[in-house]
Amino acid sequence: MPRFITVLAALVVAAPASLLAQGSTVAAERSAWTAWLASAPTSPYLAVAQQPIGPGITLGSDSADVPLDGVTLHRLTASGTVSLAGSTGRRALPRGRPVQLGRYVLVAGGPAGRAVVTAFDTSRARSTPAFYDIDPTVSFIGRLQPPDTASTTRLLAPDGVEVEASLAGTVAVPVGDSTVRLTVMRIPDPVSGEATLEIYFRDLTNGQGSYPAGRFVELIPQADGRYRLDFNRARNPFCAYSSAYACPVPWRGNALPVALEAGERYVPVK
Amino acid sequence: MTPLLLLAALAAPPDLVGPWRAALALEGGSLPFMMIMDTSGGELRGRLCNANSCDAFSAIMLQGDSVTFEMADYAAVIRATWSGDSLVGNYSNVGNRGPRVIPFHAARGSWAAAPTPAGLDGTWDAVFVSGGRTSPRVLVFQDANNGMQGTIVSSTGDYGVFSGHGTADSFALAHFDGSFVYLVTGSLDGDTLRGAFHAGLRTRTPFTAVRSTGKPHLREPTSLTQADTTAPFAFSFPEASGGLVSSSDPRFRDKVVLVDIFGTWCPTCHGAAPVLVQLWNDYHERGLEVVGLAYEVSGDTAIDGALVRRYREKFAIPFPLLLAGVNLVEETAATLPQLRGFTSYPTSVFIGRDGRVRRVYAGFHGPVTGAMHDRQVREYRNILERLLEE
Prior knowledge:
The structure holds two protein chains of two kinds. Chain A is α+β, with helices and mostly antiparallel strands.
């Protein structure tokens, strides 16, 4: 019997330590996120335009497709590669790589044939994100139920750029005495070549403290094949930081019938 | 170094010096690596090591009990609180969609070296499963001076040196160079090895593997990229040290040319560089020219030029290295329209004395792949011998 008591005591001690470690990781993630928003030249707060390049668009003057103060007329085209031409010559705009143009930074993205450009104004005022307090009770570990049939769909990633995502399955979230299943999509990052398992979900805080359109949360793989779903890590799509971004349409069925006061809040941008 | 950094470095208490056994705490498992600190001319320096493969931190900054290890090339940092024999903090790097954070900790000393268990030693044919799709890989495990080491090989090259530990029937090997965060774990289930490959905190790819039978499991590296052979292979790019170098230059006339499509950011390219230098040494007098086409991260000539010059010095490269573009597959393909199906860095293009492409090798098997590396080097020599005889 004493042996069981020891084991039990170890578990009781271990559980809060694990929760504490999770809490400090979430706090570090929030701090890095806030610092990036406050300092990066491609901070979403600085975005002033996000536009499909199509057969070509103009940048610069007032009458351009994308007016940029103090920038002479440039033309952006995408035929396989994205290139920027102005009076001083032509240069490549490699996908995912920031390129300076006057006080602006341009980043090309999107799949071949449907490239988009996002323009950031480095002189623009930045805001500061806000978060609900960390709540250890909204972090779950569970299995990903694979789909019956594989499928892919084009959707908008958190940064408003279209990607070819594949259905990864569903996860069950405990709500009261029952569970709600949320759809999980595998969203590729064309620049790193890696993919993340993302859930774009809605809950009753939308428009009542959190972003009205919904929030993204990623699954974190565990050693045993299961995944952590931690709503403290719920993040706003980039359209919450600047109206320049295209906003992802909520995913069908991914609605939790509870007010989930966890993760990122919504601070309307002035 | 800025005055502030210099001040911090000079103020470094000496007892941060020495080896530290470090780890990134992925939720899928612990990713071990080494950090080795020393002082040079009173300045604190540090290296991040996987087995014997080390990269220097670009800067180490101390402020009170806070230490920041910078890896500027990767826009990555480790920030930790230092308390006697331990460092606790986070590693973060910045991707396209914002920063990523992974918990970090370190303690003084080295990881215990354990030999590769006999049941795992050798080569395994693996199938990785992601998003319902499968792709072949080869796992290589071998014994090294400092314990179990290995790598993962795809059809286009290896993932660099992994180090770690194994028990009788399970293993955990890691590769962390400041940018790539790779952990591969697995255990034997009868004759089948089952496990998972973690890339960063968020990506997990399960796999199964069986012992290699010797039959080809990966795609042949010569089958991935094809070339237009109806005309001589053409390139024209500025050299990192200035001046334009073109395939039509007299130096290439009637010569066998080996074009190395590479990037200084690419670990596999680092594995290939010493081999190319050796081939140049062995065959240059008989008519071999080698030229490196660098596809770099920034697209900024000043930044890329400095990286390429550093790469030249590191490997004592005697042949020209040209700034050809940025390291995105489609961008590379656009600058070399005579290649079809360009897929990987490095790619080796073998050109005969008539200027036409004879063979294209996509990817490279580094020394850590053992027999696969030896075979590829042997094939390179065979091709060159044949072309030089023509």
